[in-house]
């Protein structure tokens, strides 16, 4: 029979395997969503090779990491670029906005994707060394479990009363869907982690910077886990990116904000306010493939075809 | 010199070098493992104390209950880690309480009761059990267990302390079972034979001879299982609900140290106190694991008396 020390070693080996499994899967889930986005782009009928070719191919290899909200778009654009320029390699990873900013600042990657500006996350000297490229607008939408019928839109005031906990309060003002015209069903808040760009943007644009009532809520790590929780839990509500809603529109119901439905068109004409810039940072002025790819992101094909097909808005005029 | 030594003395020098090689390799491997462990311990401790060195956070603050790390928050920043520490303890103690009787019973069955053909089935299935990745457990927990707890048992969310305990209990079952099985196997057959020869039933032999003789080995097995439970992140993250408030109600959502680290690691940068607090969490988790290793060593040391 196997002796105890050997077993103990094998237990350690197993533990190590689990650590790697954990790392692998966390980066794998966003890329699964990214491939959905890419296929949506392909389905839109604009073949990458003809209309989508960059002005000039630059050979080489770059890596972009960061925001999982931007990842589907950067991934789709990277694939389209490489399809036209087979000698270049563009690798797109998730990890979160903080990871993207840290890695581009350290020079570990050439491009860092972020939902938030660098100066909000990095010390001033590091942030000033980075150059900001705003490549798109990203939108978020409030979603509810499909059992919540009769509610199609919330006013900003109602959203604040559902989500926020002003100082001294431990529960939100509105805790039941019947208070906003829905069924008699308690509201279950599903939050992203406090550091997530999605949650920070919602708090800033809709809740006026007032904290959510975390004590009454569930917290889920990713857009995918949020969507599953919303689909399963009666009365649940959360906020997810457009791209993730588009992939799950049969499982969850979207709510408008102040009577405006969250859509790429309403984001472009400015009537839908739950939207923010998508940043790609480079360390210093970009050169080589990084510059070529950033130019490509601003090209007519990406801005007019790829971006709407992936449920983003074109970058604001600069 | 005796005759057998002669061939070695007359051998070519190359042979000696070749004989030495395995020893060098194993020495190098051992040195690397020791260096690696020392490096990890130093690194995590160093990063873990940055919160206290670089910010005005007093050490006692991590033993408070409020987790408000967000500098843009409308509430004062406070790095209370107690909800994470309590949650971690609740998960692995609960998991051990659920898992220990099952897995020790299973180990007893495999070691003492099972006919050969049954052992040939149970042992490989235990080993396959170990190979299932934790994300699979988490996914099953989220899609099967969580709706069951909510719809059938009437939990408010389904995501709950109990869901985490149950998922981890299943995950550590093979660990405890195989270690406990080994402990039972080290009990000499003569002791069983002696007991049976005195006219005891099989159960009396197990109850009064095998179990007491293997007791410390079984406890070691349970503690090793609990250690694995404490470090488990992915499966737990999917089913406990991630609410950073202390509760002792198993039907309510909780959070754990590993979950707290993974939730905010990607979206914070090393210069933020928030990120430093995550390293402090890692250091606290490491300290808890070291505590368990100490316990395991004590227990294994005790067993050698037998």
Brief account:
The complex is a heterodimer of chains A (318) and B (306). Chain A is α/β, with parallel strands linked by helices.
Structural class given helices, strands, pairing of chain B? Answer: mainly alpha
Question: From the coordinates shown, what is the CATH architecture of chain B?
Answer: Orthogonal Bundle
| Number of self-contained structural domains of chain B | 1
Largest interface: A-B, 55 and 56 residues
Would you list the SSEs of chain B in sequence order as H and E? HHEEHHHHHHHHH
Number of helices, where a helix is a run of at least 4 consecutive DSSP H or I residues of chain B: 11
General form of chain A: elongated
- Please state how the strands of the largest beta sheet of chain B are arranged side by side: 1-2
Average pLDDT number of chain B: 85
Distance between the termini of chain A: 72 Å
The biggest beta sheet of chain A, please?
11 strands, mixed
Keywords for this structure?
heterodimer, A: 318 residues, alpha/beta, 11 helices, 21% strand, elongated, disordered N terminus, B: 306 residues, mainly alpha, MetI-like fold, two-stranded antiparallel sheet, 1% strand, globular
What does this structure look like?
The complex is a heterodimer of chains A (318) and B (306). Chain A is of the alpha/beta class and 318 residues long. Chain A is 40% helix and 21% strand. Chain A has helices at 4-43, 71-84, 97-106, 124-128, 156-163, 197-205, 223-232, 242-247, 264-268, 288-297, 300-309; strands at residues 60-66, 88-95, 111-114, 130-145, 153-154, 188-191, 218-219, 236-241, 252-257, 275-283, 313-314. In chain A, strands 1, 2, 3, 4, 5, 6, 7, 8, 9, 10 and 11 form an eleven-stranded mixed β-sheet that branches. The termini of chain A are far apart. The model of chain A is unreliable at 1-50 (pLDDT under 50). Chain B is an all-alpha fold and 306 residues long. Chain B has a single domain (86-300), classed as MetI-like (MetI-like fold, Orthogonal Bundle), CATH 1.10.3720.10. Chain B is 73% helix and 1% strand. Chain B has a two-stranded antiparallel sheet. The model of chain B has no long low-confidence stretch (mean pLDDT 85). Chains A and B meet through helix 1, helix 3, helix 6, strand 7 and helix 7 of A and helix 5, helix 6, helix 8, helix 9 and helix 10 of B.
């Amino acid at each position: 029979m196997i002796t105890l020390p050997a077993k103990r070693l094998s237990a350690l080996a197993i533990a190590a395997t689990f650590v790697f499994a954990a790392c692998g899967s966390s980066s794998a889930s966003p890329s699964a969503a990214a491939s959905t986005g890419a296929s949506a782009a392909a389905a839109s009928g604009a073949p990458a090779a003809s209309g989508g070719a960059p002005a000039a191919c630059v050979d080489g290899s770059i890596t972009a990491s960061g925001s999982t909200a931007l990842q589907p778009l950067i991934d789709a654009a990277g694939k389209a670029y490489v399809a036209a320029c087979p000698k270049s390699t563009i690798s797109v990873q998730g990890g979160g906005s903080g990871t993207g900013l840290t890695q581009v600042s350290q020079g570990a990657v050439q491009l860092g994707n972020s939902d938030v500006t660098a100066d909000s996350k990095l010390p001033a000297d590091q942030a000033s060394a980075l150059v900001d490229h705003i490549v798109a607008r990203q939108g978020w939408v409030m979603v509810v479990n499909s059992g919540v019928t009769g509610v199609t839109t919330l006013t900003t005031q109602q959203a604040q009363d559902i989500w926020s906990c002003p100082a001294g309060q431990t529960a939100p003002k509105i805790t039941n869907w019947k208070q906003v015209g829905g069924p008699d069903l308690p509201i279950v808040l599903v939050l992203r982690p406090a550091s997530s760009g999605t949650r920070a943007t919602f708090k800033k644009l809709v809740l006026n910077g007032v904290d959510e009532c975390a004590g009454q809520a569930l917290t889920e790590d990713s857009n995918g886990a949020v969507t599953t929780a919303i689909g399963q839990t009666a009365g649940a509500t959360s906020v997810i990116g457009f791209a993730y809603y588009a992939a799950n529109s049969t499982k969850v119901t979207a709510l408008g904000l102040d009577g405006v439905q969250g859509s790429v068109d309403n984001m472009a004409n400015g009537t839908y306010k739950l939207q923010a810039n998508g940043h790609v940072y480079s360390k210093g002025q970009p050169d080589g493939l990084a510059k070529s790819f950033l130019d490509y992101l601003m090209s007519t094909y990406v801005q007019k075809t790829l971006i709407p097909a992936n449920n983003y808005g074109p970058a604001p005029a600069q | 010199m005796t005759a057998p030594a002669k061939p070695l003395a007359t051998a070519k020098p190359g042979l000696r070098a070749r004989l030495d090689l395995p020893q060098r390799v194993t020495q190098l491997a051992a040195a690397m493992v020791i260096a690696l462990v020392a490096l990890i311990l130093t690194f995590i401790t160093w990063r873990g104390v940055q919160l206290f060195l670089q910010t005005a956070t007093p050490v006692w603050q991590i033993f408070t209950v409020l987790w408000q790390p967000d500098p843009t928050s409308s509430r004062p920043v406070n790095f209370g880690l107690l909800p994470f520490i309590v949650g971690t303890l609740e998960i692995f103690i609960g998991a051990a309480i659920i898992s220990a009787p099952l897995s020790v019973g299973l180990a007893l069955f495999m070691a003492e009761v099972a006919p050969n053909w049954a052992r040939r089935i149970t042992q490989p299935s235990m080993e396959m059990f170990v190979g299932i990745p934790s994300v699979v457990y988490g996914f099953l927990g989220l899609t099967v267990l969580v709706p069951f707890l909510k719809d059938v048992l009437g939990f408010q969310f389904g995501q709950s302390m109990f869901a985490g305990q149950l998922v981890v209990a299943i995950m550590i079952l093979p660990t405890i079972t195989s270690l406990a099985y080994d402990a039972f196997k080290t009990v000499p057959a003569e002791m069983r034979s002696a007991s049976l020869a005195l006219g005891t039933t099989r159960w009396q032999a197990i109850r009064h001879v095998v179990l007491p003789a293997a007791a410390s080995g079984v406890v070691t097995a349970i503690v090793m299982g609990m250690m694995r439970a404490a470090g488990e992140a992915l499966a737990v993250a999917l089913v406990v609900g991630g609410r950073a408030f202390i509760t002792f109600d198993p039907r309510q959502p909780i959070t754990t140290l590993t979950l707290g680290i993974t939730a905010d690691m990607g979206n914070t940068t090393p210069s933020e106190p928030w990120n430093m607090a995550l390293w402090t969490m890692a250091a606290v988790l490491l300290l808890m694991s070291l505590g368990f290793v100490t316990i395991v060593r004590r227990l294994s040391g005790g067993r050698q008396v037998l």
